[in-house]
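Predict the assembly for these two chains.
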Amino acid sequence: MTDRIIFVCTLLLAGVYFWATAQIPSLELGDPLGPKAFPRMLGVGLLIAAAMLLAEILRDRKTAKAADTDAMKWERHHWVVVAVAAWTALYIALFEPLGYMLATLIFLGGLTTYFNRGRHLMNGLTCVLFVVISYVAFTKLLGVNLARGIIPF
Amino acid sequence: METLTHILNGFVVATQPINLWYTFIGVFMGTIIGVLPGIGPSAGIALLIPITYGMNPTSALIMMAGIYYGAKYGGSTTAILIRTPGEAASVMTSIDGYEMAKKGRAGAALAVSAIGSFIAGTIGVIGLTLFAVPLTSMALKFGPAEYFTLMLFAMTAVSTLTGKSPAKGVIATILGLMIATIGIDLQSGQARYTMGIPEFQDGVGFVVVVVGLFAMAEVFRGLEGIYRGTSAEAMKITGKLWLTRDEWRRSIGPIWRGGIIGFIVGVLPGAGGTIASIMSYTTGKRLSKHPEEFGRGAIEGVAGPEAANNSDTAGALVPLLTLGIPGGGATAVMLGAFIMYGVQPGPLLFQTRPDLVWGLINSMYIGNVMLVILNLPLIGLFVRLLYIPQGILYPLIVAISAIGAYAINGSVVDLWLILMFGIIGYVFDKIDIPIAPLVLSLVLGGMMEQSFRQAMTISGGDLKIFYGSAITVILLVMSLISVLLPFIIPKLRALGSSGDPS
């Protein structure tokens, strides 16, 4: 089942890529191939890969060893990944408005409270120390720009 | 004679205090990265690139190489004490290493992997020193067509040898090449696939892709593991941190063999440390007088694979330095680092910057000595890292990745990209699409397209240039073989009646 979905996605992607390649305006000046030729080869390559996958699907069906069909089955622990991804998205959205220090503190505080449960003092100390030390080390010592946000220093 | 001068001069470069310091920082961080789950050598090196912009390239590359081979030392510690390879290539060590730890011989297992890694790592660097020069003189004859076919070979080998399914490996390779086409086309100045996002005009940076695919994806897997309660506890180090005379006698053969196997496998594209250690393990088992002990805590089962996966790193640097073409994920990231510093590895580099090349190679002799010290008397220090609660560790990895990604351009777009590639990496892992081929082709994509178009310009649009010389024909045939190999091997196994189950 999983492999069939990959097969369909691969075909879709190849289609989108061919379409996007056709959208590139080209002048063909002094360059016999232009900016489209290599991408077209890649599109064909992806179709060949899809054909290889189809061959593998058919071969596995023949030998009846396709027992890995549950890879795509939705299980409860997948929600954790969705939640972590959403929490990370919120972190990124707040990264510039709030600034690195505040956004990171909220992000780390939330995750450690859930995943390292009950050890509030340890979590709190680690988060604050990490945020302050990393901010000072990167912005002041290494000259790396990190979003300042609403904190004035 | 001139080469000898360059090599000796390389030692002068490598022993400059500043470079000794960066060798130390590199191998120290490499050991930490190897011990900790989450950030592997690829993501570790990628994260350092934006931070080390202003550094002198020789020191920066010495440090990054240190992370690369240092991680292999650290990876075995985690494999032995919690049966989880801290680094993919340590997977064989986790079998007998953990069994030894359960029997109270953790000390001996750690000692033999450190010593084996040292001996084999040094064998690997000697191999690198010996093979580098002859290969560069061959590579000087390479034109764009030769380079194109060489990259084709590297990619086909990696795509069909890394994953369970060759088709999925090819899909990953082409995805990487497609991502590489995003941005302004260098020859025509035309923007391609930028979707109207100005940040995409410079292309999608490989740093964010690597950090997303390796580090972020590992965070998702790790936190999922904590939720499911499947994360493991670390064992205490028991037993003396040294080998008995008998253990030593049993280990030395596998270490030598592993060192040589690892180097050869490392030079070839595609195979990499994991395959090197598996080959070393099965060879050791076949040659052993008591194969039944393998899997139950045989010291040979730790010594052989550990040796192989360390000399593999030196082997993998051979094609990267001499041809400028990496043969796997981690060396692809190294190539990305070279290019970011404005240094193009390849045969010409041996002529234009012998100080850099030989300084880098010779720093590895010193780095291996440092590593054996860090990983024997000081191993207790690194083991403590394993007691850091994973519920704290994984969130911190996200924050570190965010710093690294934001540092490149000061743009939030890069943060969204690491999240996106993190999700892609997590999903790809679940559905068995390998990510190493994607990273390799992403880094090589631009060069591959350029050499293809240059070759076509030279030949006036005639494809004959790709099968016109002996080198291109050999490389094309090798590419074809690497595509067909996964289909042929099962047939060959079926022919041999008593196939090895492993």
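Chain B touches chain A through 62 residues (CB under 8 Å). The beta strands of chain B are 183-184, 191-192.
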